[in-house]
From TrEMBL:
GO CC aspect terms: cytoplasm
SUPFAM superfamilies xrefs: Galactose mutarotase-like
Catalytic activity, reaction form: alpha-D-glucose = beta-D-glucose
Keywords: Carbohydrate metabolism, Isomerase
Keyword Isomerase appears in the UniProt entry: yes
Cross-referenced Gene3D superfamilies: 2.70.98.10
Organism classification: Bacteria, Bacillati, Bacillota, Bacilli, Bacillales
GO molecular function: aldose 1-epimerase activity; carbohydrate binding
GO biological process: galactose catabolic process via UDP-galactose, Leloir pathway; glucose metabolic process
Organism expressing this protein natively: Halalkalibacter akibai (strain ATCC 43226 / DSM 21942 / CIP 109018 / JCM 9157 / 1139) (Bacillus akibai)
Catalytic site: H179, E313
Name assigned to this protein: Aldose 1-epimerase
Length: 349
């Protein structure tokens, strides 16, 4: 086990550092204290070749200018908040409008765009880095001074665990996730259309034309949203289902999980032999298939293009503050917010 630290860049005169966690078997995760961004995640393929399976930049400036939330912690609230406002304890809060008429992923300067403090962790069975940040009362329009911790740990089983913790001195909203873009082919050599996804989910949330949940739960049965027995991502890209078309010919949908800590999310790339198994205590996962991933920028030596990678964002239901039948994302004064998701990588021989 090894932990290394090096300077990644500089922001407003403050150094930004990268922290690399590496196991003896070659499993390696690198993150930076800007946005808790995971910049590299190296795992072997079926032939033992180590390659990066996430999208990333190698310059801080590119994250600031181009990044569609590559690898970052998202908050205070992941996803969209309808009309960029909400009411809590009799008071209305107005948030930055940064996605059409709505508020997206914590605003213009969400948790993905701030500098976190880092503490290195080294135990007998794992190594890690713990990031901490105080989000002040009123930041991006949200109430409460919120103390946050995000912990990344890895072990010899090729498992990355992300743990979140938060407390507030007054009632607020909190719904965190990680926005890593996965491509199991390795170094982005192919798109993700032939990746096979299996989800323990029999419902997904219907979206309106602004990609806000309508509040309706739709059954997956007999649709391109049924991943219970596994299906390729391409099937959803080619689907004529109105919800696939609405999302830009793909997925940008919350799937309601029917099981937790039970191999509920499985992503496989048959050609490389790599697979990713995710387990979480969250009630849903947002599948985003990179439908809008395009632009005049390079992702290291790759050109940005649709379907180059996908996100699996474990969280509570988006826009929950406007739907009383969704799990609550209200964090009351002195309560402790906790969330855990693990990512275990393996290969088929």
């Amino acid at each position: 086990m090894d932990i290394s630290k090096k300077k990644f860049g500089e922001l407003d005169g403050k150094p930004i550092y990268s922290y690399t966690l590496k196991m003896a078997n070659g499993f390696e995760v690198t993150s930076i204290n800007y946005g808790c961004i995971i910049t590299d995640l190296k795992v072997p393929d079926a032939k033992g070749q180590l390659e990066n399976v996430v999208l990333e930049f190698d310059r801080l400036e590119d994250y600031q200018e181009y990044s569609p939330y590559f690898g970052a912690v998202i908050g205070r609230v992941a996803g969209r908040i309808n009309k960029a406002s909400f009411s809590l304890e009799g008071k209305t809060y107005n948030l930055p409008v940064n996605d059409g008429n709505n508020h997206l992923h914590g605003g213009n300067t969400g948790l993905d765009r701030v500098v976190w403090e880092a503490t290195l962790l080294e135990e007998k069975d794992f190594i890690g880095v713990e990031y901490s940040y105080l989000s002040p009362d009123g930041e991006e329009g949200y109430p409460g001074n919120v103390r946050l911790k995000v912990r990344y740990t890895i072990d010899n089983q090729c498992k990355l665990t992300i743990s979140y913790e938060g407390t507030s001195d007054q009632a607020t909203l909190l719904n965190l996730t990680n926005h890593t873009y996965f491509n199991l082919s390795g170094n982005g050599k192919r798109d993700i259309l032939q990746h096979v996804l299996t989800l323990k989910s029999d419902q997904f949330l219907e979206l309106n034309d602004e990609l806000i949940p309508t509040g309706e739960f739709l059954p997956v049965q007999n649709t391109a949203f049924d991943f219970q027995q596994g299906r390729t991502i391409e099937e959803g890209i080619l689907s004529t289902h109105p919800q696939n078309i609405l999302a830009g010919h793909g997925y940008d949908h919350p799937f309601i999980l029917t099981s937790n800590y039970n191999r509920e999310i499985l992503l496989e790339d048959p050609e490389s032999g790599r697979s990713l198994t995710m387990e979480t205590d969250e009630p849903c996962v947002v599948l985003y298939t990179g439908n809008q991933l395009a632009g005049d920028f390079k992702i290291r030596d790759l050109t940005a293009k649709k379907y180059l990678a996908l996100c699996l964002e474990t969280q509570k239901h988006p826009d929950a503050i406007h739907h009383s039948h969704f799990p609550s994302i209200v964090l009351n004064k002195n309560e402790v917010y906790r969330s855990h998701t693990s990512y275990t990588f393996s290969v088929s021989k």
